[in-house]
Amino acid sequence: MTNKNLTVMWIANFFVAASATMILPFLSVYIETFGDYPADYVQRWSGIIFGVTFLVAFIVAPLWGRFGDKFGRKKILLLTGYGIAVSILLMSFVSTVWELFLLRMFMGVVTGFIPTSMALISAQTNKEEAGKVLGTLQMGTVSGGLFGPLLGGILADSIGFTYTFLITFVVIALATSFVALGIKEVKPADVNTEKYKRSMKEVVILMLRNRMLLMVMVLSLVVQTANFSIQPQLALYVGELTQAENVAFLAGMAFSATGLGNLAATRFWGIRGDKMGHDKIILICLILSAAAFLPQAFVTSIWQLVILRFLFGLALGGIIPCATAYIRQTVPIEVQGEVLGYNQSFRFLGNVTGPVAGGFIAGSFSIASVFYSSTILLTLMAVIFYIVYRTKRNFQKGRNMYAFNIKRKKFNS
Fold first, then answer.
1. Do 28 and 136 lie in a common domain?
2. For the domain that residue 345 is a member of, what is the CATH number?
3. Residue ranges of the Major facilitator superfamily (MFS) profile domain (predicted)?
4. What sign has the CA pseudo-torsion 403, 404, 409, 412?
5. Structural contact between residues 116 and 337, judged by C-beta atoms closer than 8 angstroms
6. What is the pLDDT of residues 219-254, one digit of tens each?
7. What are phi and psi of 94, to 5 degrees?
């Protein structure tokens, strides 16, 4: 892999992630411009319109991965990048919630740019440095996701919704064009796609037979569910901690603290994974995530919450790059895109299940209960992951000992 490809994809991921998240802060306000609706109607449709993109993406992501393995990942990057741009452009012309709903659904269909970029860079990276490289690439995505909502809110207040959509369209289209001109996809010399064709059923069986790989997939769902469980309630929780008038700003700061921690640590964890083993780093990050999540239920000030959210982000930062690097090391390269697509599907599903579960728990008990339940979920995942991890290590140790004894017998004879 060339440094040029990594640099181009880092920049493209930054702008695509930033532009795609620019519209999230004002979705509910945008719906209010369509008519005189009751508050509960706006809130309900805001949640539906937000979640439908991830629900559709959950279904479609493996297909983009499969198409990328078969036809080339650069082609999929261009198709999905321009598709996202067009969907956002059309949002500036809608006048009903149904039109916006359908466009957000279409956006879910073409939401394959970032996972495909991970697959492209992963396929062109040596296994020995996959964690470092993918951690670096993840920094671009996280950075864009951090600045996007802030910039979107500023633009919406300054120039209005229509021009914000137009600017977002232009930025994503330019970022995609940057990929078209700057990325050179190199097919690894050891891959013969025609010779090693596998059906979707065979790929699923491959994942089911590898227990650690399956755990990595489930892990993506669990971690994303836990992370997103508190997001819809965060502003309300901040309101309970402070009497300040700028609750929205403080809630945004608490939200961004997790992203900042993620940004600060993701490359570090990727490098540690290359040296120590990515499955081991995933286990460490899981334990640290649970340890940083539980104390958030007991904070008495906004600054305590911000610090703990930052620490949670530091722990969370190693899971995505190490999971991707583990797939790079474990899965045959000719189907890596499809497997990464399944992994991304589980993450998208977590984006839906997290807010729903968090809202139900907070409504039935209390907001603090969301922290308890998510901590229990992360802890259980860590225990199960540890059992599978130890079983795998013991199996490898036994196999290595068996091979050693066979060689020794041959040598003695």
1. yes
2. 1.20.1250.20
3. 5-393
4. positive
5. yes
6. 989 998 998 888 767 777 888 888 877 676 777 778
7. -75, 155
